[in-house]
Design goal:
The protein is an alpha+beta fold. It has one domain: L-fuculose-1-phosphate Aldolase, CATH 3.40.225. Helices cover about 45% and strands about 15% of the residues. The longest helix has 28 residues.
Length: about 250
């Protein structure tokens, strides 16, 4: 195999970075055209390597981004390539990248129905749709923190290592993934689930899946997530749910 010289490595890095720039601009257009963001809302990022990320700028419409709008920063948030300021939500992105090395992309938006649940202080945790249980487990609610500050990260930090999609109280939604396409698809899933839940509630309330059915669905998930999923409510009566919990309580008391 031919030896790869530094100039070749740099050329390969720049080529990969340019492809990521195109992808971020494309996903930004998807977010904007889907109504997940308006005006200058939302932000996107991709991890380029273990030291750098590519992130959208502050004050730019995500539906009208061009390649040179994007900025490269280090994991301390310092700009190493590009002009202007990175997204004001960069701290939230850095929290994910520092906490989960396998995460390669972050998507933050304000999809209206899911954000409505966040504004009402309601998580999306009910076991209703099989595809949501298999794909995301549940979608918790992070307590409110001022956007663009570490206060937001304080409420989010306990959830980052466990969940791939989180509602941000009175704010919006953040999703992560091994690539930007997956992170964006998870954003779509959250908004679609919120729409279904709102419709179901208008029709008298959703039908919850049984514990046994949820366990069968959840067994198909990645082992990392399987340990962390906590089912807050199922179709069984309270007495049946307590019967499942009681042995655990007795064991803990000994």
């Amino acid at each position: 195999m031919a030896r790869q010289f530094p100039a070749d490595c740099l050329a390969a890095e720049l080529k990969a970075e340019r492809q990521y720039r195109r992808l971020i601009c494309r996903v930004g257009r998807w977010m904007y055209s889907s109504g997940h963001v308006v005006a200058n809302e939302g932000n996107l990022s991709v991890r380029l390597d273990e030291h750098r990320i590519l992130v959208t700028p502050s004050g730019k419409c995500k539906g009208r981004l061009v390649l040179d709008d994007l900025l490269v920063t280090d994991l301390n948030g310092e700009v190493v390539r590009g002009e202007g300021q990175p997204s004001s939500e960069l701290l939230m992105h850095l929290l994910y990248y520092r906490s989960r090395p396998e995460v390669r992309a972050i998507c933050h938006a304000h999809p209206p129905t899911a954000t409505g649940f966040a504004a009402a202080g309601r998580a999306l945790e009910e076991p209703v749709l099989p595809e949501v249980i298999v794909g995301l487990g549940k979608i918790p609610l992070a307590s409110y923190g001022t956007p663009g500050t570490w206060e937001l990260c304080v409420g989010l930090e306990p959830l980052v290592r466990t969940y791939d999609a989180v509602l941000l109280e009175n704010h919006g939604v953040v999703t992560c993934g091994p690539d930007l396409g997956t992170a964006y698809q998870r954003m779509e899933t959250v908004e679609q689930f919120a729409r279904v839940m709102l419709t179901a509630e208008l029709l008298g309330g959703p039908h919850l899946l049984s514990r046994a059915e949820v366990q069968r669905l959840f067994a198909a998930r990645h082992p990392r997530s399987r340990k962390s999923f906590v089912l807050p409510l199922t179709a069984e009566p309270a007495s049946v749910q307590l019967a499942h919990i009681s042995p655990q309580l007795e064991s803990a008391a000994k």
